[in-house]
Amino acid sequence: MFAVVDRSLYSRVAMLQNEQLDRAFRALGDGTRRAILHELAQGEARTAGELGRHFRSAQPTISKHLKVLEEAQLVKRTVAGRVHWFRLQLRGLREATSWLTRHQAFWDGAVDQLEQLLRKETRRGET
User: Fold this and answer.
1) For the chain, which ranges sit under pLDDT 50?
2) CA 106 – CA 24 distance, rounded (Å)
3) Does residue 1 lie within any of the structural domains?
4) Which of 12, 68, 90, 97 has the most crowded CB, counting CB atoms within 10 A?
5) ∠14-78-76 over CA atoms, to 5°?
6) Three-state SS string across 3-62, please?
7) CATH code at 46?
8) 85, 76 Cβ separation under 8 angstroms
9) CA–CA separation, 107 and 97 (whole Å)
10) What pLDDT is attached to residue 13?
């Protein structure tokens, strides 16, 4: 027997994935947050204080950036006593990369078609 697909459940799951993707792109849209990710990509976990000194930003400002990155699943927080350590988490970045890859194929094809159409129109105009 075939299982019946609950369309409302599928729709809710798709919306949650879109919200996660929105958070990732929103987080990546800020230069400071991209720089934080670049710094964390060096491999070592860092505290908010260490990152704040590196970026010459106040600790509350860096903490806000880290919260956005954490909600986008781009960084993972580990708490050891009173110290919060942050490490790069690739889950959110993989989802964003996957979305971009799927859509890049479409746009590459659309651009190729446009170039062909423009060449045809140019040849018509020359005759």
Assistant:
1) 1-2, 9-15
2) 21
3) no
4) 68
5) 30
6) CCCCHHHHHHHHHHHHHHHHHHHHHHCCHHHHHHHHHHCCCCCEEHHHHHHHHCCCHHHH
7) 1.10.10.10
8) no
9) 15
10) 47
Angle in degrees, CA 64, 72, 76, rounded to 5? 75
Residue 70 lies in a domain: yes
Amino acid letter, 25: F
**For residue 80, what pLDDT is reported?**
94
Q: What local confidence, expressed as pLDDT, does residue 24 receive? A: 93
Indicate the DSSP class of residue 77. Answer: E
Domain boundaries, position 47: 7-126
**Residue-wise pLDDT tens digits, 11-39:** 444 445 688 899 999 999 999 999 999 99
Beta-ladder partners of 77: 86
Q: Nearest Cα to 23, choosing from 62, 58, 61, 75?
A: 75
Give pTM, 2 decimals: 0.69
78 within some domain:
yes
Could you give the number of structural domains in the chain? 1
pLDDT for the residue numbered 1: 44
Buried b (16+ CB within 10 A) or exposed e, 71-84: ebbbbbeeeeeeeb
